[in-house]
Design brief:
The chain has 385 residues and is an all-alpha fold. It has one domain (9-379). It is built from 16 helices and no strands. The longest helix is centred in the C-terminal third of the chain and has 28 residues, at 267-294. Residues 9-348 form the Acyltransferase domain. The chain crosses the membrane at residues 12-32, 57-78, 90-108, 144-164, 171-191, 203-226, 238-258, 307-327, 333-356. This is Peptidoglycan/LPS O-acetylase OafA/YrhL.
């Protein structure tokens, strides 16, 4: 088993990459035909296959990595202490995000979809007072639903901590061999073929049965895989085969989707659901395998990016939505529009990270760990020196 103190830099790299993909995905949502909070005048259907290629696995990957990270923390802290720590680290940014960060997204949305003519300062008090007259749920967490779900799954797993030895034994037997590649596909495929078709995905915490099956299982898989060295070694060994499988499954899945087979009732649609999840798990296994093989150590840059990624995540969608909304009247060329939105998003994330590091009161609301007493003493000594 992996030593409790060993840092998994390969997972740090994947976590950073997954969040960067999430930012790119949300920028893409501004341009594809499907509904979103605001939309560009440069709607580009050609982007849809690329978005379809990312959708099946990007969030499941994040939840698996989050499950692994939670297990590493659980090995160091008692369940109660970890529950308190994760509640503080996740719910403070979530609540502050709902009140301050997400609110401008909702304002831009009601302006574009409902024709609202008031300023944000006129809208904000109504947002905070649960005004439902705009036709959307207010206040809301929008992209921060991930944080709410992650906190919920963490609390459930920690409550079941007494079952961990038995669960570890099961994971070692089932996920230490071929089951690693088969069992997740069967579970995720079943969820997609049944629960998704019945309920869809809502991102409403108390009414999102399919998402809880999908992402809760992904989180639990990560939690159980964390200490299974045989499984990680197998992922590394099978990386090339998983890459080939992912490519083949992607081509097959996108072809069937273009033909509309995935929307058919009965076994054709169910078969496509299993194909989709086989592709998603193949991609996740490929990324784990290659990252474990080639990422061997950390660096100051990796540490900085790993710390900065949560503040970037918190503010990125608001930056995209506001920049996109405010740029539309200028009728810029699509390349200029994309470049400006991307620059604003990066600058906003960097500013949020800088503020979180320099203003102690903003550290936790913007997603950074609170300063320990020792860290404050070192910081004070450095400034006085």
């Amino acid at each position: 088993m992996t030593a409790p103190s060993a840092r998994r830099h390969d997972l740090d790299v994947l976590r950073i990459g997954a969040f960067l993909l999430l930012i790119a995905f949300h920028l893409g949502m501004f341009y594809v035909p499907s509904d979103w909070h605001v939309k560009s005048t440069h709607v580009t259907p050609a982007l849809e296959p690329w978005m379809d290629a990312l959708s099946p696995w990007r969030l499941s990957l994040l939840f698996v990595i989050s499950g692994v990270a939670t297990r590493f923390m659980a090995d160091k802290l008692a369940a109660g202490a970890l529950a308190a720590q994760r509640t503080r680290r996740l719910l403070i940014p979530l609540l502050c995000g709902i009140g301050f960060v997400v609110a401008p997204q909702s304002w831009a949305e009601v302006v574009e979809k409902n024709g609202y003519t008031g300023s944000f300062l006129d809208f904000w008090p109504r947002y905070l007072m649960f005004d439902q007259s705009f036709g959307i749920v207010l206040p809301t967490y929008n992209h921060l639903w991930f944080v709410a779900y992650l906190w919920s799954y963490t609390m459930i797993v920690l409550a079941a901590a007494p079952l961990l030895p038995r669960a570890d034994h099961w994971a070692g037997r089932v996920l230490g061999g071929a089951g690693l590649f088969v069992v997740p596909v069967l579970l995720f495929g079943l969820y997609r073929a049944t629960a998704y078709r019945a309920w869809g995905e809502t991102h409403v915490l108390w009414a999102d049965g399919y998402a809880h099956l999908q992402y809760g299982t992904a989180f639990l898989l990560g939690f159980l895989l964390a200490r299974q060295d045989a499984a990680w070694a197998l992922l590394e060994k099978a990386r090339a085969g998983m890459l080939a499988a992912a490519v083949v499954l992607a081509v097959a899945g996108l072809t069937l989707a273009r033909l509309g087979v995935d929307d058919l009732p009965g076994w054709p649609g169910a078969g496509c659901a299993f194909l989709r999840e086989a592709y998603a798990w193949a991609v996740i296994c490929t990324l784990f395998g290659y990252a474990r093989r080639y990422v061997r150590g950390g660096s100051p840059l990796l540490s900085t990016l790993n710390e900065a990624v949560f503040p970037f995540y918190i503010v990125h969608q608001t930056a995209i939505v506001l920049a996109g909304h405010l740029l539309k009247p200028l009728e810029l060329h699509v390349a200029a529009e994309v470049g400006i939105i991307l620059a604003v998003t990066v600058a906003s994330g960097a500013a949020a990270y800088h503020l979180a590091r320099t203003v102690p009161a903003l550290r936790e609301p913007l997603g950074l760990k609170p300063h320990t007493r020792r860290a404050r003493q070192v910081s004070t000594a450095e400034k006085s020196g």
